[in-house]
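Quality-control log, excerpt.
Job 1 of 2 completed; input and output follow.
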Amino acid sequence: MPDFTNPLRNPHDLRLPRIAGPCSLVIFGVTGDLAKKKLLPAVYDLTNRGLLPAGFALIGFGRRDWTDEHFTNYVEECVRARCRTPFNEATFAQLASGLRFVSGAFDDADAFTRLSDTVSELDRDRGTRGNHAFYMSVPPSAFPVVSRQLAASGLAKSPEGAWRRVIIEKPFGHDLASAQELDRVVSEVFDPNSVFRIDHYLGKETVQNLLALRFANMMFEPVWNANYVDHVQITMAEDFGIGSRAGYFDGIGIARDVIQNHLLQLFALTAMEEPVSFSAADLAAEKTKVLSAVRLPKDLSHHTARGQYAGGWQGSEKVVGYLEEHGVDPKSTTETYAAVRLDVDTRRWAGVPFYLRTGKRLGKRVSEIAVMFKRAPHLPFESTATRELGSNAVVIRVQPDEGVTLRFGAKVPGTAMEVRDVNMDFSYGSSFTEASPEAYERLILDVLLGDPPLFPTTKEVELSWRILDPIEEYWATLGQPQQYRAGTWGPAEADEMLAADGRAWRLP
């Protein structure tokens, strides 16, 4: 009789295809914020859910002069503070037995020799079988030196029958030329199929549900085109400022930080044709076609907008403007709000504008894709009956309240024929008992499984920069961005941008 308490012995356990084989994960920059807040808790949660093998090992690489015991205490502290599954002593003990720390700088060849020795020890003592993933949770400027050290120490080369993979955090360059140079350096060391570019937005449950919504339901795909859709709005709004990220953010700006990767990936998934399958190659092929078909408006002055938050009130808290943030140049022209219009030269989307916007210190924290439909060609009602009736819409909420909302017209109860907008709402939290995995849990597991559908390809990255670079070059000629008060929905020119097309931003 099957042992139903053990997924490895339970033939009906749906986790079976998703349990990683023998392997280890090496995290460069393990003492940084990303590892502390996301990566280490995600590894623990994967362990707690039975999705990592008992012999899994985690190696931290950093400058601090730590012992393995010190590192274990640090990991436990991070996990207890931020794990999503209950803290279990036995689970952590299993994980702790495979924790190792290697002290050194990225340009220290001796440190990589020690790392190589540690990897060999894990292969021997924990059965990791030569399978190792290297997570570069480091600034982009460190990617080349770490890659070359991995090559020089022999760590990048996998033994026969094993694998080596590298995980690169965004940003993937700061323009097309730098992205191509980064790809060249990494490709000298790792096979392109072994390079995984992390975009944590693609690990979110709702982003993947977009594929199910479109292609598993006959009711949506027939109207997902220019015959019925008026326009599409893709929004990522944050209600906080730059915090302690001035050193990274100032000079980069929110368009490079968010539009080039997160929003253009959401755009591609929304606009692409149905793939032959959901394999990595087939998904990438369709996303690449859409990104290749993007046409920028000829007049960027009327179809792009940028802004910079000024001081004001965020809820009940008084906050400073961007130029008063610690570490920001008082004369900075870096934008904290960006909006662009994109057109797609395909039969499906001819004449349908896509509006992408993102910003900090906006009215609320929300990420969503809103497909706005055309109005009915004829309304057989008196004009007074439909004066509060707007456009039908399908709104995919990516965060924080993951779900889907349908907006349509319905009759108001009563004797008169009066039609108003109503919402039909689907929420993950109320519809499923299973908790959605955190994005980094899914993406780390995908790397360890060698399953790449949710990772942008080199071609996608390059096409994204080809779209954004002309906009950035135009903005560089304009000087100071338009100011907007904290807690509002961006600069006036963003509203004017849609008003020029006879449209308006929806209020999330």
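Job 2 of 2 completed; input and output follow.
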Amino acid sequence: MNKNSLLRICDLTKEEIFDILHDAEAFSCSQSDWQFPRRTLIANLFFEPSTRTHFSFASAQHQLGASVENFTAQGSSVEKGESLYDTVKTFESIGFDALVIRHSQDEYFKELENIQIPILNAGDGCGNHPTQCLLDLLTIYQEFHTFEGIKVAVIGDVKHSRVANSIKEAMDMLGGEVCFSGPKEWVETDASYKDINEAVQWADVVMMLRIQHERHQETMKMSKEEYLQNYGLTKERAAMMKPNAIIMHPAPVNRGVEIDSDLVEAKNSRIFQQMSNGVLVRKAVVKRALGYAPFDR
């Protein structure tokens, strides 16, 4: 596997995380016009539906001057039974410089150890989503200018969320704290579980999660309205938050389910800022994947 691949947040050191965040910030100002000095060909291989991750990667790649191809399984040789490895090996063999991959299989990248071009993980099963984690970290850092002692409450469908796994790993590394809340059957650990009202009052960052219906084996037993009242961020719960606490959500947002619709664009919401930061972070990780050194700090 190429050393510049990004597969899991835990594969990065603390210094590497800060290098990526610094480069992302630089892309918003001093290095906004930086582009690849040579022709670069990148393919986005999405085996699951995506809007924000897919097209923020594409936006980042185009802004960096890369030639971009967007692959979907439908209409490809995958429908004829081609394996993931053979699909990826094909892109390597025909001259692509890097691949971005989202796949429903947990840790799909373990099948790709013999691939030599860099792979950027855009989400695997219920496991990892490193670039989402990095854009969340950038959003938190922009707000608080540190991670030390920052408390993040991750609330909702924790069990099926790759976002929850990645942010917990990162905040543990960077000196922050994470608690989980939501339906207890969707939270696999008791050690860091808090009741939702306690979690909202405790947190500096209230991160709501979408219900991942596509990963559930059975239909949710409560109505959308019941879920919001029991486990969602209502206006009443938002009023319990610390004065300087912020609301985050990896999106897509189910308004009126995990969060009251009026709170999505509230003064303390950073949901759309996260999306903007997604392009900056993905520019930084694509630059890193192609072997370019971090910008000077």
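Post-run check on job 2. The mean pLDDT is 93.
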